[in-house]
Amino acid sequence: MEGGSKLDEFLRHLKTELFDRQINHEGRKLIVFSESKETTGYLLGQLARAGYKKVLTICSENRADRMPLVRANFDANTEEKAMTTTLLIPPKSGRKRQLAPGQTCS
User: Fold this and answer.
1) Which phi-psi region, left, alpha or beta, contains residue 103 (left: φ > 0; alpha: ψ -120 to 50)?
2) Which domain holds residue 49?
């Protein structure tokens, strides 16, 4: 990609377009799908470095624990609305991986 890395291009689109209310109804929420947990973890770290603190990652190991938070933040039909998460990054197709006790997939 000319003019910068994929990450730079993604961050530029986050700042300039993806939260624009003309294409993002509420202008506050975004779901980004990733192919792998490794990419999800990398994005989580890079987004934090860029100032995005309200990011939630989902994988097969933490899905059950995090589903209430996902519903509260992203399900338009839920009555319990929350504003704790701006970006949700689930893997599109996760490879099963054993986590150590207390470890998350991010």
Assistant:
1) beta
2) 6-89
